[in-house]
Specification:
This protein is α/β, with parallel strands linked by helices. Helices cover about 40% and strands about 20% of the residues. Helix 1 crosses helix 2, helix 1 packs parallel to helix 5 and helix 13 packs parallel to helix 15. The longest helix is centred in the C-terminal third of the chain and has 26 residues. The chain is globular and about 60 Å long. About 40% of the residues are buried. Bound molecules: 5'-deoxyadenosine (5AD) and iron/sulfur cluster. The site of 5'-deoxyadenosine (5AD) has 12 residues, from strand 13. Iron/sulfur cluster binds next to helix 6.
Length: about 475
């Protein structure tokens, strides 16, 4: 069956459920993990709201509670099991339907644990069966039986799912899914399948539609966003070019042309895929933000090799230099893991050294977490927790110190920001972000919301900058 046919069947299930559920049904959703998961949750919400479910934040009022899980690090598991413990009583009282989906469900040891310790969960669905949520809910409702819908495949692309977006200004658009890199610490390739890219036409039409509906900022998403269509090109897998789009660079250029869109961001790229054409496209496209996320993971060439990252410390730093030369006003953010097996004090110093040299705008820091099934988990020289934590604190201190200094450098500069809305803590002010993703709070009229405006930064408040309209 082709994917269009499969989606048509799901739409029929949506109609069938509408006929059997009572009015005013409510759902609560918990999303863990990355922006791709957030985007998947928007699709889950889209399907549920099409059925007629309304969103609630209160699990006690929900008829259906859905978890969209992540398994990149262990702490997500603890959070899920904690929440499930809480839900047991709620379910006993209200008969709530409980469904769990997402990356964690692709791990057998987790689904086994849920079935054994939390037998009251009604539905388990994986990353490759998200589009079948209507059918699965229908089965739970009509057969009054537990449902498990998890498959282990390379993965397909499903177009045309309903979507309920969180914002009406900023939208995420998934352009590719899966990963072929198998970094030795990472579970993603095992739970998300192989890299596959959406057709250029589908992406461009989605962004055009978003622009028509008033969206201003687009974030292109993928586990390896800048290797968009790479596998297809390398393996001669046929795909249809559209408006000359046949790579990540050409996609950026084409989206840059779409009227109404003011900003384009993308996450998460791999350093190896910053080919010259991609660097040139970032430099050339005025709407593409000059904040580039360049995951380092570790600074030591030895650790990078063990991590299977495919670059050395020197190559990474050379790439930074090359990008700095090619892209005026470039700012950089990164991901770093501390305490990977075998990481010595010397190796860790290399990480600190890269952080000092690059001076990132933002650093996402993680303590290495053993993931069952990955090569990293089988390595013998695991680092004791205490050392991992010490290194983490040291890195945090260094990175935050640099970020604080950089924030201070903003004071007195003029920055273009997209006014996103009223600020949470003070109704009298508005909030927006710079090209480099710094939050700026400023006094302004509500009619500025949704507009790109220029502000002068007048004060640095550490967690945000204060600006005034110029
Ligand atoms: N332990 C700690 N951090 C990890 N990441 C991925 N896998 C692990 C792991 N096993 C981090 C990487 C990646 C980010 C999304 O999560 O830094 O870039
Ligand atoms: Fe994980 Fe590496 Fe793939 Fe990123 S590139 S998803 S870190 S395996």
């Amino acid at each position: 069956m082709d994917t269009k046919q499969e989606i048509k069947i799901q739409k029929e299930y949506i109609e069938k459920i509408k006929q059997i559920v009572k009015e005013n049904q409510k759902y609560a959703i918990f999303t863990m993990g990355c922006q791709l998961n957030e985007n998947d949750s928007e699709k889950i919400c889209g399907m549920l709201e099409e059925i007629g479910y309304k969103k609630t934040e209160d699990i006690k009022k929900a008829d259906l509670v859905i978890f969209n899980t992540c398994c990149v690090r262990e702490n997500a598991e603890e959070r899920l099991f904690g929440k499930l413990g809480e839900l047991k009583k709620v379910k006993e009282e209200n008969g709530t339907i409980i469904a769990i989906g997402g990356c964690m469900m692709q791990e057998k040891h987790i689904t086994d644990k849920i079935k054994e310790s939390y037998p009251f969960v009604d539905l388990l669905f994986g990353t490759h069966t998200l589009h079948k949520l209507p059918e699965d809910i229908y089965t739970v409702l009509t057969k009054k039986q537990k449902e498990e819908d998890i498959i282990d495949i390379e993965g397909k692309i499903y177009e045309g799912l309903p979507i309920k977006r969180k914002s009406n200004l900023q939208a995420s658009v998934t352009i590719m899914n899966g990963c072929n890199n198998f970094c030795s610490y990472c579970i993603v390739p095992y739970v998300r399948g192989r890299e596959r890219s959406r057709a250029p036409k589908d992406i461009i039409e989605e962004v055009q539609e978003l622009a028509k509906n008033g969206y201003k900022e687009i974030t292109l998403l993928g586990q390896n966003v800048n290797s968009y269509l790479r596998v297809e090109r390398e393996k001669n897998i046929p795909f249809k070019e559209y408006h000359g789009v046949n790579s990540f660079a050409t996609l950026l250029q084409e989206i840059n042309k779409i009227e109404g869109i003011e900003r384009i961001r993308f996450i998460s790229p791999h350093p190896k895929d910053f080919t010259d054409d991609v660097i040139e496209a970032i430099a050339k496209c005025d709407k593409v933000c000059k904040l580039v996320h360049l995951p380092l993971q570790a600074g030591s060439t030895k650790v990078l090799k063990e991590m299977n990252r495919k670059y050395t410390k020197e190559q990474y730093l050379q790439l930074v230099e090359k990008m700095r030369k090619a892209i005026p006003n470039l700012t950089l953010s990164t991901d770093i893991i501390v305490g990977f097996p075998g990481e010595t004090e010397e190796d860790f110093k290399d990480t600190l050294d890269v952080v000092k040299q690059v001076r990132y705008e933002q650093v996402f820091m993680f303590i290495y977490s053993r993931r069952i099934g990955t090569p990293g988990d089988k390595m013998e020289n695991q680092i004791p927790e205490e050392i991992k934590h010490k290194r983490f604190d040291k890195l945090k201190e260094l990175a935050e110190g640099i970020i604080a200094e950089k924030n201070q450098e903003y004071v007195g500069t003029k920055q273009k920001i997209l006014a996103e809305g009223k600020s949470k803590n003070n109704e009298a002010t508005l909030t927006g972000r710079t090209d480099s993703n710094k939050v700026v709070i400023f006094k302004g009229n509500d009619n500025l919301i949704g507009k790109m405006i220029e502000v002068e930064i007048i004060e640095n408040h550490i967690w945000y900058l204060e600006g005034k309209e110029v």
